[in-house]
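Office hours follow-up: a student asked to see two folded examples consecutively, so here they are.
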Amino acid sequence: DVVKIRGDAQRRLRCMRRILERLYQLLQTDMENTAEQVYSTLRFCGVLLQKPSSE
């Protein structure tokens, strides 16, 4: 929990940055999994889409 971080301002910012980086990675993975499920579902329903190129 970000609110429970103790220490000076620099330490709190470093800890919050690590937490946000982990959350970003989790959200990115979840978004990619959701996109794969959407493509699979639409393909099952007969809708063919091109997957966007990964950049």
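And the second, which I mentioned at the end of office hours:
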Amino acid sequence: MGLLVKSVRQLFSSCSKFRDECLSKTQVYEWCSAFRKGREVVANLPHARRRPRTSVTDDNVSTVENLILEDRRSTVRDMAEELGISVGSNLLKNTVKPAYRSKRRDIPIRSETLNELGWETLEDPPYSPDLSPRDYYLFGPLKEALGGLQSACDSKAMLRVRMVT
């Protein structure tokens, strides 16, 4: 028995190198226990004592999708009442995929339409050399210090910012 526990510990320590992708310590012990008792298959086995799933059906999933498309502000409680299922049912976890939103550059039809209309399109710069994400912490305190003051020209605004800093 001591040799078996030691091998389970070794198995867990080798699995823990994978960090978030690894099974928990309890799961490793449960799997080792199951194989010790004679289990030979890694795949999920059917559960004879489990109650069949009644809330995650194709009809319910399509109904929830339609409800969301009709009124995106509808709540989970409203949908559960309409379907007659419990609020804790998780219908959309693995069944509904998020809509793919392509970038502006990836849509040639849009750019062709803009060219036909004679509109000039400007490319967005990949980054701003004057402003980096680590400068964002300045905006809140700077807005508070300026207190909503407005300037008619850039030079006056820069002078006020220099006075604050």
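Two things to take away from it. The two ends are 69 Å apart (CA to CA). The first helix runs from residue 2 to 15.
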